[in-house]
Amino acid sequence: MFSGSPNVEAESAGLNPDADNLVTSELVEWAQIIFVMEQAQRRKLAQRFKRHLKGTGIVCLDIPDRFAFMDPDLVRLLKAKLAPFIS
Asked: In degrees, to the nearest 5, what angle opens at C-alpha 26 toward C-alphas 24 and 29?
């Protein structure tokens, strides 16, 4: 969704085994900031990748992870919550 934004390199990845693109230690080390939808995801990420998160910020967007892919309401929420981080 934001990969076309100037000065932004973005990847989407999930923590659940059925995710199209799973979070890996390499992806975590590559990221400067990781955005998660819910606090439970933040905890799971921190548990699984603790040693790889040094220097990587994790931001919880506090959006329930119940939306379908590219749901218009989700897109609106993401744009609003991520605006301060993407310029």
From this structure: 110
Q: In the chain, what are the domain boundaries?
A: 25-85
Amino acid in the structure at residue 25: S
Pick the closest to residue 34 from 22, 26, 42, 25 (CA basis): 42
User: Which residue bears the tokens 């939306």?
Assistant: 67
Residue 30, φ and ψ in degrees, nearest 5 = -70, -35
Q: What is the mean pLDDT of residues 56-85?
A: 92
pTM confidence score = 0.88
- Euclidean distance between the first and the last CA atom of the chain, given in angstroms as a whole number: 14
- Please give the single-letter amino acid code of residue 35: F
